[in-house]
Design a protein that fits this description.
Two copies of one chain form a homodimer. Chain A has a three-stranded mixed beta sheet. Chain A has a domain of 98 residues. The first copy, chain A, is globular, with a radius of gyration of 23 Å. In chain A, helix 3 crosses helix 4. Chain A is mainly alpha-helical. Chain A is built from 22 helices and three strands. Chain A starts with a helix and ends in a 6-residue tail after the last helix. Chains A and B meet through helix 1 and helix 2 of A and helix 1 and helix 2 of B.
């Protein structure tokens, strides 16, 4: 088989893979939207069946031969960026999915099922000791699994690399130290600031149906294309990629702030995913890079755009028109309310400034555990100490502390860094965008989102996963990942809100 | 491989087949409920992919060997009814799906795609000549396809047999003659009757949301289990079997009569499908016999139950409470309104009495065409003549006439008989039910649906497709299919409503 046939053969595998991936997304959507309670048993079996079929794709002889052929192939000999993207994505998926023996995958599945129950029990009782044995087992098993994927790298690097393609742990560690220290410094200034923010306006009760209608209007005006998606309501919001032109978003309407900003966040994921160009779709590279890179797009729209003054300069009059709650609240008060800095124990409701500290400290703890600088007995104390040191608040029990996230019980070790890295990407993209389109915010203030969305689409969104996160960043910003751009942005924004001097 | 292994191997094939069948149902639901317009292209490709995978199941060596092994196997040597049902269903599916060469299937797919466009064009223009060439081609191709499935039978028998397992055309023809003549006789009496039914009460405008809420209440009270399903809104109502405990129904709310009775009809399909017992589910025989038999369950609930006096004795007070439109309408007027006999050109909105004439005359026309007693040039005249003879009304153009149904353009030849046969099954089941549970209607009048649903579940619903339609009928009624029970029921009901003497 010649080069063209080999290329076509892995292209076909990627096509099939995407069908199963899209199907899995459809099942996720269904699970929360429509699946009746009694339908769950059969659906689990059905999903298991199709997951098995998906796994068979990369276990085929064709896949094996493709992997051998292209592993040693000089990428510069490939015709263009699209072909390079195809080969890169194929090898990345191949290496991450085929090297773990089936019995280890089964062991992990049964362990995580057990661990999630243990975690729930522990969370209810606020007692880490219930969860600890399962947690230790999960870390041990995941480290073992990482060895299969790449025996030459530290297993923690391998796991993080499965979540974020091309990630380098030591570099992340360095960036996180800079980011952490920078945020803590800003937080200290805020603590000393005389500015007191009254956010009672967004803590009021809102009519659910009216909020729903407003949020739909808001994200569509921001750039989310409903003819390529749809809206759903769930407890824990998500976006699902059911097709290159079918990316649906969800939120909940429990509070104004969560409902609105979770929706913009998910719309950020969705706009990235639904804007792959036709050639990228045909190459089965639609939907974008996963992990931190996808998170950069959601957090960009949620915070850098959605919590900007200019965004609400445009939308606030409409908000006031629709909700009597804001009748006597001026824009400045509202703007400060949505940007109020308030350290808390919960990552998912954290403000923009302190948010990154939550994933950073989890990443640090994971690293300490796998490198032997911490053990599972000391975990609750270590967790609480870090919250006290970084955020200035100390969890008073395990539920507020080490049991906060379900992630570890699901086997997600080496995963938390994505949430903070996404912010760094976003800050760096923001700077490039402002250089190229200096009037982007003033246009947003006029309700013109075209310059923003055009720049994002042209430079990032349309390319799907043609380029790796690192390549994409270099193409757009000319540099590798830095912490300073996001930190500069935070300093500028919060020094204005809390009126402190930049040193 | 021994008997047990052979049996297990076809059981596994049936399990996989059901997963794809359920997936295909999920796609149908999605298509009408949530799929965004722009998402359609990719979804078509994705569906094509999974349909191909489904086809591979019965093309496997395992399937081939299973078919060879069990084709000559004496069914009485099988362990029990469940095993017999498994083998029977496997062979039925195997024979209907594997014998047609792939190129013929592709030819049919492309022809029906073209034919549906031609039909639409013809329908718009009310001009049969636009559709005729495609229609002729479809009949020719379908007859050819039937030869592959069974070269020893008349192709029309084969096609009808693919829709209705075990059907015998000559017997159907005989039953239909009896049914047709019987209905025409009743219709003549009604035409001479002095009873004039005023159905203006159900032709009023109704608030859509309130109608929706009422219909949900109604079908749940009738026995539809929402925890094993869900509700949707579409133009052409359907029920979808997404799992043994996930059978969703749809209706539309354009008119009171259509909305309510389409919902009860679909709930009838759904109750049958969602009540397979656990052993039947485990044997992958859940969901029931397709074609006429499934239609018997939907039409039973829609008409024999849902348009009975007793049904509304219970529900009418609630209906009156909810809708001011019925405030000054008594039950008798309402009951007569929903049972008003009014010949029309449209099968889908036909009343209970004349309904069967629509599919019967289509069946007769198909039979005449394939047996050479009619040709495609004379089709519009033939169609109109039959409407005039049977229903006493003559279509004035092709749209009212021969272009009424989309079915033929979709390749559904030998399919219409299901719609009328279902009524015969229903009438025969009704008689058996009344023998076993004489107070079933008086209990319904009290709002107690347990006797009805228990009898249906125990005798029919729980068995899924363990027994063929014919076996099922004999088990429950002790006889083969007859026309007289349904005709007796019609005579009894309509002689009361229209006050004529039974001869």
């Amino acid at each position: 088989m010649g080069f063209q046939e080999k290329l076509q053969s892995i292209k076909n595998l990627m096509r099939d893979y995407k069908y199963y991936e899209a199907l899995s997304s459809l099942f996720t959507w269904e699970q929360w939207q429509q699946l009746p309670t009694e339908g769950n048993d059969y659906r689990q079996k059905m999903q298991g069946f199709f997951t098995g079929k998906m796994g068979e794709i990369f276990l085929s002889d064709t896949a094996k031969q493709g992997a051998i052929y292209f592993s040693d192939f000089d990428p510069s000999l490939l015709g263009d960026d699209m072909e390079r993207g195809l080969v890169r994505s194929f090898l990345y998926l191949y290496n991450n999915t085929t090297k773990v023996p089936l019995e280890k995958q089964v062991e992990l599945a049964s362990l995580t099922a057990k661990a999630q129950k243990m975690w729930q029990e522990a969370y209810q009782a606020s007692d880490y000791s219930i969860f600890k044995p399962a947690l230790e087992e999960i870390f041990r098993l995941k480290m073992g699994i990482a060895k299969y994927i790449d025996p030459n790298k530290h297993p923690f690097y391998v796991l993080a690399g499965s979540a974020d393609e091309g990630i380098e742990i030591e570099k992340v560690n360095l960036l996180f130290k800079e980011l952490r220290n920078g945020i803590i410094k800003i937080l200290e200034k805020i603590n000393k600031s005389s500015v007191n923010i009254d956010d009672s306006c967004i803590l009021q009760q809102f009519d659910k149906e009216e909020l729903k209608t407003f949020i739909k209007y808001l994200v569509e005006a921001t750039g989310y294309d409903s003819s390529r998606g749809g809206f759903g309501e769930v407890l824990h919001p998500f976006a699902v990629l059911i097709g290159p032109r079918d990316v649906r978003i969800t939120t909940n309407y429990d509070t104004f702030k969560f409902g609105v900003f979770a929706a913009i966040h998910e719309a950020g994921h969705a706009m990235y995913a639904q804007r792959s160009n036709d050639a990228v779709v045909d190459m089965h590279l639609w939907g974008g890079n996963m992990g931190a890179f996808h998170e950069s797009q959601s957090r960009f729209y949620e915070n850098i755009i959605g919590k900007s003054k200019e965004y609400w300069l445009h939308f606030y009059p409409e908000l006031q028109k629709r909700f009597a709650q804001f009748e006597n609240v001026d824009l400045d008060t509202f703007y400060k309310a949505i940007n109020k800095v308030e350290p808390s124990f919960k990552r998912v409701v954290a403000d923009e400034l302190t948010y990154s500290l939550h994933p950073i400290l989890r990443f640090e703890i994971e690293k300490d555990l796998v490198e032997g600088n911490a053990n599972f007995n000391m975990l609750p104390e270590l967790w609480n100490d870090k919250y006290e040191t970084y955020l200035g608040i100390r969890p008073t029990n395990d539920r507020e502390g080490v049991l906060q996230d379900v992630h570890w019980s699901m086997g997600l070790v080496g995963y938390f860094q994505s949430y903070a890295l996404g912010n760094l990407y976003g800050g760096q993209f923001r700077r490039a965008m402002l250089k190229a389109v200096p009037n982007v915010y003033s246009e947003i203030a006029k309700g013109n989102f075209a310059p923003l969305n055009q720049w994002m689409t042209e430079n990032i969104h349309q390319h799907g996963r043609v380029y790796s996160p690192d390549e994409m960043l270099r193409r757009v910003t000319g540099e590798e990942l830095q912490s300073k751009y996001f930190l500069d942005y935070l300093k500028e924004k919060y020094s204005q809100i809390y009126q402190f001097d930049l040193e």
